[in-house]
Amino acid sequence: MKVEKRKFKGGYRFKNFDGQITDKIDAIDIPERVVIPLKQGFGNEVPFISKIGYTVQAGQIIGRDDTSVSSPVHATANGVVEKVVTIEVFGCEVQAVVIKSNGTKTWRVLDGATENWEELPTDKIEEILYLSGVTALDKEGIPTKFNSSVITPSDVENIIVHAVGSEVFNLSLSVLLGGERVHNFVEGLKILHKVMPNAKVHLAIGNNEKEWLTTFSKILDGIDWLRLYALEPKYPQGYDEVLIPTILKREFPHGYCSANIGATVLSVQAVLHVYDAVVEGKPLIERIIGFGGAGFKENVHAKVRIGTSLDFILKNRIKDDLEVRYILNSALTGDTITNLSYPLDKSYRMLLALHEDRKRYFIPFMNPGFNRDSYSRTFLSYITTKRAETNVHGEERPHVSCGFCEEVCPVRIIPHLIYSHVERGFIEDRLIDFGIYKCIDCNLCNYVCVSKIPIAQYIKEGKDKLIEEGLEPPLPDYDMKGVEEYLSIREKPVQAKDEEDETS
Amino acid sequence: MKPVRKLLDYIYSIKLLKPFHPVIDAVDAAFFSPSELTEVKPHILDNIDLKRYMFAVIIALMPSTIAAVVFYGWYVLAMIVVSYAAGGIVEVIFALIRKKHIEEGFFVTGIIFPLVLPPTTPLWIVAVGVAFGVFFGKEVFGGTGRNPFNPALVGRLFITIAFPTIMTTFWRVPFSDAITAATPLSIYKTSHTITPYIDLLLGQCGGSMGETFRIGIIVGGLFLLFSKVADWKISISYIGSVFVFALIGNALFPMKIAPPVFQILAGGLLYGAFFMATDPVTSPFTKAGKWIFGIACGLLTVLIRSFSGYVEGVMFSIVIMNAFTPILDHLVLSIKYRR
Ligand code: SF4
């Protein structure tokens, strides 16, 4: 199969940071108790449908609501339902079911799953997918007849599966796809194509993964509904907003989501879960996550049951003498994990532990900087391993128009121009002309800023204020699908801000 | 580094010095990186800061500076020290008045400025010039980042206008003590003789002390472009347009306009194109603006050199275009984002 090479303008390649995740994978035991949030991944919170005191099996549905945009939630350990509690996760309150596990590792197999899935009617496959909980994965879920996304399967014109490791830390393809798994993955793609027959499937691999590209171009040969791409692993290539223009060569509906233009963007793990559900009958009860950053004794992958507390997962894995910051999924955009009692849910890909480096280095501006990353080429670290830690590396200074933020911005707006307007309090239409709503909050402009100005924060503030003034993102002039559903489920930026005000 | 740390901590502990904390903070911050951690996303930040950004310019100026010392002796260093001291004092006074941090801008001004002076400039004139430049070129507008003009250029223009003899008669040929009024450009203007290119490249001719060793300027300039500290669009379009306009002009008016390669190698063009026109604060930030800025600088330089009473036009062109920078950006933006 032909490999198409594509890239986008802007962005930044994060390369050679310390604490990269190695190809090793650990299995983590089932903890004594799992805590299962009733809202996980994409979709609304679902009501609890089991009873306290009931004995449940791993893979049994304990939360479900077919009327709202949501997917079912499963017990992830065999045991007894102890209680339903309200927990706080990243500032949101959510109901969670506590199950006392009996320690056994079996799970309840999904009804109807079979190796000969090709013979199943599409309806049945959709049902299995929905009942497996897989449909809540990734940014907008996988569409089925059961309201698992904001659109239906027949609305989907493009499925984009991306395996581009463009973040500072990335899961290893060899771990996810090693051995038989690559064939399972291809089978998963075929299942998705059967469910969404109108869709072209696009598989994007980083052009640094030469071997995987050859493998795929071999095993995918002859599939006419599929196309294979080699993308440059620049951050933020993995964002829907960047994947869609690079692959589909069309504009992203900024302010809305990829589902609204009939595209479903999925990760490698989601496709594997699709295979597991439909062929092996395995509901979504565990995830593979990676441990990135120099705070870990060993940077490995781990297979973990959903609902396991982070405490339990991280036990004995962190270097003892180091002050670290825990971050979910991404060093650029991930939330700080302040409470290690949070349970792991479907949306976790990665746990990062970065060194909180408070050390004051001597005459830093004259340091040759062998281990220091910079977008500018003023540090001698072009090929060496660089440190990923949380120091600010400099004082905030006046804006000097160095232009770095404009060069890296993946959506080709001029971040510092918007910043200087917002900073001076000019909240007006002009900001929309400047493309403020195109900003995808990738935070790259903050990263490169020479004067250490939190540009992306100002842009976010500008967006919030515009919405407060009633200047919403303009509706694109082409037809979109599922817009109302999307708006009803999208968190409103203004509300989020109010919450912050109350707590602070 | 330990003794430095101890000394600083001791100075901090003296109550009497409290009003001078901005100064001490600046020294502290120059010697030690901050201990603060990121509070908002992203969790990790680029290692560059304004100090390093400015320091890259100083590194890029090293070949020229060293060449100047070799050519003209230790007096060059004295000029640089005086320039730093005088500029620094103005900077400190303003930081104290504004109760703000000391800004790194004069790191660069302090060295860029003396390098554009003749090697025999009296020290007091260096001091007056840099103080004038920092004060009127920068501080009155609100400090680094808000200045419309490059402070070093303002200082140099001030000297050109206030002490015209210095800029016209105080040149020296390297390794000789003779003071002459002749620079390659003035020689061309009076007698149409072209100084050999190899002499221009190696700096064997009269000129400002940092401008003559052109190989060093090219090396330093390329480093700046490579390190991304200076934007290549401005340097390239400036030098390129001088070439093109001189080529056309020389064909049309061979008696007035010097040939292109000579124009590029003579005078302060390379220095200006790499180190002064590229100052991000005073040049346009829009891409189209940068191209127009560079091309206009080139055109003005050729015109001033050929048709005005001055032999050199680099400084004037850059200052004039600095003044047009906000308008250029405004025009480009209103075209790019028209409704
Ligand atoms: S955060 Fe927004 S403005 Fe900044 S680089 Fe990313 S997309 Fe561009």
Chart the SSEs and their pairings.
The complex is a heterodimer of chains A (504) and B (339).
Chain A: E1 3-6, E2 25-27, E3 33-37, E4 55-56, E5 61-63, E6 73-74, E7 79-89, E8 92-101, H1 122-132, E9 158-163, H2 173-177, H3 181-195, E10 200-206, H4 210-219, E11 226-231, H5 240-248, E12 263-267, H6 268-280, E13 286-292, E14 301-305, H7 310-314, E15 324-328, E16 350-355, H8 404-408, H9 415-423, H10 429-433, H11 444-448, H12 455-468, H13 483-489, H14 493-503
Parallel strand pairs in A: 1-11, 2-14, 9-10, 9-12, 10-11, 13-16
Antiparallel strand pairs in A: 3-8, 4-7, 5-6, 7-8, 13-14, 15-16
Helix pairs in contact in A: 3-6, 9-12
Chain B: H1 2-13, H2 21-31, H3 50-72, H4 75-98, H5 105-115, H6 123-137, H7 151-162, H8 164-169, E1 171-172, E2 179-180, H9 184-191, H10 197-202, H11 214-226, H12 232-252, H13 260-265, H14 269-276, H15 287-307, H16 314-336
Bound molecules: iron/sulfur cluster (SF4).
The site of iron/sulfur cluster has 15 residues of chain A, from helix 11 and helix 12.
Name some characteristics of this structure:
heterodimer, A: 504 residues, alpha/beta, five-stranded mixed beta sheet, 17% strand, globular, disordered C terminus, B: 339 residues, mainly alpha, Ammonium transporter fold, 2 domains, two-stranded antiparallel sheet, 2 strands, binds iron/sulfur cluster
Q: Number of helix segments of chain B?
A: 16
| Main β-sheet description of chain B | 2 strands, antiparallel
User: Which parts of chain A are unreliable, with pLDDT below 50 for 5 consecutive residues or more?
Assistant: 492-504
User: Globular, elongated, flat, extended or rod-shaped: what is the shape of chain B?
Assistant: globular
SSE topology string of chain A: EEEEEEEEHEHHEHEHEHEEHEEHHHHHHH
Shape of chain A: globular
Bound molecules: iron/sulfur cluster
**Strand tally of chain A:** 16
Amount of helix of chain A: 10-25%
> If interface size is counted as residues with C-beta under 8 Å from the partner's C-beta, which chains form the largest one?
A-B, 65 and 47 residues
**N-to-C order of helices and strands of chain B:** HHHHHHHHEEHHHHHHHH
CATH class of the largest domain in chain B: Mainly Alpha
The low-confidence parts of chain B are none
**Global structural class of chain B:** mainly alpha
Task: Give the distance, in angstroms, between the N- and C-terminal Cα atoms of chain A.
Answer: 55 Å
Q: Which fold does the CATH topology of the largest domain in chain B refer to? A: Ammonium transporter fold
Oligomer: heterodimer
Structural class of chain A: alpha/beta
User: Strand order, biggest sheet of chain A?
Assistant: 1-11-10-9-12
**What percentage of amino acids of chain A are in beta strands?**
15-25%
Gyration radius of chain B, to the nearest Å?
21 Å
